[in-house]
Amino acid sequence: MNLLKSVETTIANLVEGAFGRVFRSEVRPMELARKLAREMDAHRTASVSRVYVPNEYSVWLSPEDRARYEGVEHEVIEELCAYLLEHARREDLIMASPPHIDFHTDERLTLGEFGIQARLIRPGGHAEEHPAPREEHGQTMIYSTSARVGRPVEEIHSRSRAPRAFLAVGSRRLAVPPGGGTIGRSRDCEIVLEDAGISRHHAELRPQGEGWTIEDLGSTNGVRINGREAHGAQALEPGDRLELGSTEIAFELG
Q1: Residue 82 and residue 31: Cα distance in Å, rounded?
Q2: Nearest CA among 152, 142, 157, 249 for reference residue 203
Q3: By the 8 A CB rule, do 106 and 112 touch?
Q4: Residues of the chain with CATH 2.60.200.20
Q5: 181-193, pLDDT tens digit by residue?
Q6: Distance between terminal CA atoms of the chain?
Q7: CATH for 25-119?
Q8: Edge-to-edge, what's the strand order for the sheet holding 100-105?
Q9: Pairing mode, if any, of strands 181-184 and 45-46?
Q10: pLDDT tens, 126-148?
């Protein structure tokens, strides 16, 4: 097992293994960790020789989800901070200070919905962006864990015209949920593949208009489409050959 995969497995087990089974909440610690890392990546600020990322994160939970963390919230936050530190180290990103995460309750959120606001706080306590008024959520990105897929709520609620998608893996033909899904080794993925070269949460398939896209979720070995490495969300066509780890997959439409 290479170093990056060992780190990924250790951190994932640390967060999900230690706390994931404690909760029956729709918002799992590992999902928070993944989305916090995504928000970190989405708010990079490049200088001459370094790339800075937010070091302060506000997580908004529904009353039901927040209640499930009672008694272990401090420990979960510590593990989430450790996850972000490791993610920043692996990606060679700079934080002005160790990450700080706060949990908040928002009565408007329903079970399984959560919001994340990321800010870069410079030395002396000066924020790059002032926090938006609470009643508007400001730049807070809202996610939902409906069908165990996290993405902006408005995207989930939008009506998709995409045809049904399938993945042909060897002799198996796996149906992708209409709302999309995550591919990986973790048991909470919609499409679970047993391959040591595949990350726990490797890639995400999403309906987009009348078609589908695939996006790497920061996996160790990446995603290849027809032999080419994929970066960001990539549109798929019927017959495309996907490579995740050592697994070859044919993308099909039903």
Answers
A1: 15
A2: 249
A3: no
A4: 165-253
A5: 889 998 778 899 9
A6: 37
A7: 3.30.2320.60
A8: 100-105, 56-61, 113-119, 141-144, 151-152
A9: unpaired
A10: 444 433 333 333 356 666 665 44
- Cα 42 to its chain centre, rounded Å, is 12
| pTM of the model as a whole | 0.51
**Cα 177 to Cα 149: distance, rounded to the nearest angstrom:** 10
In a 3-state reduction of DSSP, which class is residue 65? Answer: helix
What letter represents residue 68's amino acid? Answer: R
In this structure, how many other beta carbons lie within 10 angstroms of the beta carbon of residue 251?
20
- CATH 2.60.200.20 at 165-253, yes or no: yes
Cα separation, 116 vs 168, in Å, equals 35
Helix, strand, coil abundance in the chain, percent, nearest 5: 30, 30, 40
Q: CA 69, CA 75: separation in Å to the nearest integer?
A: 10
Structure tokens at 13: 């087990």
> 3-state class of 157 per DSSP?
helix
What are the distances in angstroms from CA 245 to CA 9, 52, 60, 68, 185? 15, 30, 35, 35, 11
Separation CA 83–CA 92 (nearest Å): 14
